[in-house]
Amino acid sequence: MRSGSWMTTDGDAVYPARDGHIVALDASDGTTRWDASTNLLTDVSGLAVTNEAIYAGVDSGVVALDSETGEQLFAFSSDSAVGGSPPAVVGDRVCVGIGETMVALEETRLTRA
Questions:
Q1: What Pfam family does this protein match (any one) (predicted)?
Q2: pLDDT per residue as tens digits for the range 72-90
């Protein structure tokens, strides 16, 4: 699966993802807050946002970035050869589908203290 363009917002910032980058743009004036790039972001399947983090569904897993700094907080991947689904935040869990399996990760354990 190849990534397309994805975007999400928390109201204060807009987070577009494309070509291995996720960028935080100030929602009021469009200035760049941060630009995160990692080889894990090349196949983004979707984005989800909370007060603490931006979650990017990636090939067979999920990557969490700090919403304030863009720093990578966490990466989860499985051994599955099947691509992952867009992440969804449900309560304090981040869910991602990988193949025929849904993985639910506790957000409180993934983000900054």
A1: PQQ_2
A2: 998 887 776 666 788 999 8
